[in-house]
Amino acid sequence: MVLAHLSLSDFRNYESLELPLAAGHHLFLGPNGGGKTNVLEAIHLLGTGSSQRATRDAQLVRHDAAGFRVGARLIEPEANRTLRVEIESRSGAKKIQVDREPARASDLLAAIKVVSFAPSDIELVQDSGRVRRRFLDLLGSQLSGEYLQLLREYQKAIKQRNETLARSFLVAHGRNVAKSTREPWTDLVVDLGVRVALRRRDLVTELGVALDQLTEGVFRGAGPLTVTYEPSVPWTGEDPREEFAEALDRCAGKDEALGYTTLGPHTDDLRLELGGRELRRYGSLGQQQLSAMFVKLAQAELVRTAAGAPPLLLVDEMFAILDREASEEFLERVEGEGQIFLATAQEGWLGELRDRRFRVHRVRAGTVRSE
């Protein structure tokens, strides 16, 4: 898929932008704070329905504006198809349209594949399991609409079960009523939770295979980079549903005391190891950053394989954290096909990126000038 035109209104620091984009790679060059990353963020929004940086849509609205609009025209050359997408947010309400028909974020995930790279990807290694679960769920949703639907059903069941664990519910209805009300939601959490965990386990296996292929010989003596799925309820037998149900029963008192469900896929994690040692604890900063980059490259490979076409790659200031050799290796790995949207403040890369046939766009104070 090719992003042929991007339109912004009151998005971040852009009052208005109409940007035609040719097939191939694009470089957004300019000083920090000018709006380079905001362009990439808008493209990410088109592919997922959410920002990779902001937690609320209100953060995406230009100062003193009432709301924002992001629009795009995309072309699928293989299908001879043009896709028009518009996302508008006003007064906290988001409206998504695909070809002028109402749509949901799941429709964007199915139609437009994006993978982003940024220095903050190191959070995949350094931060809590929440960050890794979010990455895994995004990948699963990009590969399968069924996964996204299953995940939403599980999250709804957990929310309903948690309501019966809330102190206000226990006080209002009593412990016995709360327990009987909770039972059908517990059964549903067990059924859906095991299905989510099984899908994640298979997904992590695929991710591991892709990592093996991508990182062969990369870490020079440090050992292989591996990823394993760590469910909060380890499976020791042949019936994971029974084990999950028993684990929830053992945690009943703890769950009531805390007011929420403490076990399940919503608390699972990924473990990244380099040479058999946990990367989060023992890896150097450089190894952690490089590993995070390869995890994202593996995501791009899985998305490309599933979609039958390369995703749109959003690359934000990777040159600031990678040395010259690693930067060139990264470019060689990603520049073969599809579109790359690369943002940097480092003028020293201009000549080489022009040689690699990147089209140059100068960004300054919410304006873009294409050369």
Layout: helices, strands, pairs:
Layout: E1 2-11, E2 14-20, E3 25-29, H1 36-48, E4 67-76, E5 81-90, E6 93-98, E7 101-103, H2 105-111, E8 114-117, H3 123-126, H4 129-143, H5 145-165, H6 167-173, H7 175-214, E9 225-230, H8 240-250, H9 252-258, E10 269-274, E11 277-278, H10 279-282, H11 285-307, E12 312-316, H12 324-334, E13 340-344, H13 350-355, E14 358-364, E15 367-370
Parallel strand pairs: 3-13, 3-14, 8-12, 12-13
Antiparallel strand pairs: 1-2, 1-4, 4-5, 5-6, 6-7, 9-10, 10-11, 14-15
Label this structure with key terms.
371 residues, alpha/beta, Glutathione S-transferase Yfyf (Class Pi), Chain A, domain 2, six-stranded antiparallel sheet, six-stranded mixed sheet
What would your notes on this structure say?
By secondary structure, the chain is an alpha/beta fold. It contains 13 helices and 15 strands. β12, α12 and β13 form a beta-alpha-beta unit. The chain is globular and about 70 Å long. The model has no long low-confidence stretch (mean pLDDT 94).
The number of strands is 15
The proportion of residues forming helix, as a percent range, comes to 40-55%
Q: Would you list the SSEs in sequence order as H and E? A: EEEHEEEEHEHHHHHEHHEEHHEHEHEE
Main sheet?
Answer: 6 strands, antiparallel
Rg measurement, Å: 22 Å
Number of helices: 13
Widest β-sheet, arrangement of strands: 2-1-4-5-6-7
The low-pLDDT segments are none
Total of domains: 2
Report the end-to-end length measured between terminal Cα atoms. Answer: 23 Å
The CATH homologous superfamily of the largest domain is named RecF/RecN/SMC, N-terminal domain
The multimeric state of the shown protein is single chain
In what range is the share of β-strand residues?
A: 15-25%
CATH architecture designation of the largest domain: Up-down Bundle
The whole-number mean of residue pLDDT values reads 94
User: CATH topology of the largest domain, anyone?
Assistant: Glutathione S-transferase Yfyf (Class Pi), Chain A, domain 2
Shape: globular
Q: Which structural class is indicated by helix and strand composition?
A: alpha/beta
